[in-house]
Amino acid sequence: MTLSLILTVGLAVLIGLSLGLLGGGGSILAVPLLVYVADLPAKEAIATSLLVVGVTSAVGVLPHARAGRIRWRTGLLFGVAGMAGAYVGGRLAAFVPAAVLLTGFGVMMLATATAMIRGRRGTGRSRVPRELPVRRVLLDGVVVGLVTGIVGAGGGFLVVPALALLGGLPMSVAAGTSLVVIAMKSFAGLAGFLSSVSIDWGLAAAVTTAAVAGSLAGARLAGRVPEVVLRRTFGGFVLVAGVFMLVQQVPGDGRDKILVAVLASALAAGALLVAGRRRRSAGTTGPAHRGAPDHQAER
């Protein structure tokens, strides 16, 4: 085994850990890992990431299901709608330049990270829904599926915020439900890519095995980590990965890349500052938004 292959397989454990713990971030890790460490072409890396993330998510569903952290109707409806959008997105991706795909990926990561760090606005009076409205789930599923199919992401970095921020599900439940959606959409997106991209099946199998091991470990931790920690960890993780992706797409010498990194870091600092102020403000108005433990919110 070459050093790059050993490093790729070793880091693949983080893909699974992210999926199992946060319900997303698999493709955010997998695409840069396969492009910059395994040295795969962008579109082949995207297709391979969909396979790895799809299998890993499907296995990761099992411990979440046993712990009761999945909303099955919401997940399956979102997944079916997302599969249709992801397949179309995967076919359209063949006509989009690789640099555009990766840049779009990075921009969406920054926007999503900011939303997760800031958290969801609310009054604290609404009850956590057992399932989300069908029409809304289908519409969100198609839109998220189309976008993630084009950029080659399993979709957790958009699905989790949709379920947690817009749907109001506890973060651990959003993470578990997201894995159902990610598995379905990843396989649909992969089918679209296979019409124009080939995969190194040996590499894909090795990376998938390592990622599955990580996902099982992450799922064990998911129910034990506080809601706000999960959400902000997810947001911070996506933010860092998004900055990295955008910096890599900047043409020119190292000075240009450093400038972009500084600007992106300033953006990140601003998002964290807003989150901190919002938290302090919430602390002065009462405990309604402190975030009850997930086991209480689900009852």
Explain this structure to me?
The protein is mainly alpha-helical. It is built from 12 helices and no strands. The chain has helices spanning 3-22, 26-37, 42-66, 72-92, 98-118, 134-151, 156-166, 171-193, 201-222, 227-248, 254-285, 294-297. Helix 10 packs antiparallel against helix 11. It starts with a helix and ends with a helix.
Helix count, per DSSP? 12
For this entry, what is the oligomeric state of its chains?
single chain
Tell the overall outline.
globular
Which sequence of SSEs, written as H and E, runs from N to C?
HHHHHHHHHHHH
Our Rg estimate from Cα atoms comes to 18 Å
pLDDT < 50 runs, ≥5 residues: 122-128, 284-299
**Beta-strand proportion:** under 5%
The total beta strand count reads 0
Which labels suit this protein?
single chain; 299 residues; mainly alpha; disordered C terminus
Brief rundown of the structure:
With 299 residues, the protein is mainly α. It has helices at residues 3-22, 26-37, 42-66, 72-92, 98-118, 134-151, 156-166, 171-193, 201-222, 227-248, 254-285, 294-297. The chain contains 12 helices and no strands.
Topology:
Elements: H1 3-22, H2 26-37, H3 42-66, H4 72-92, H5 98-118, H6 134-151, H7 156-166, H8 171-193, H9 201-222, H10 227-248, H11 254-285, H12 294-297
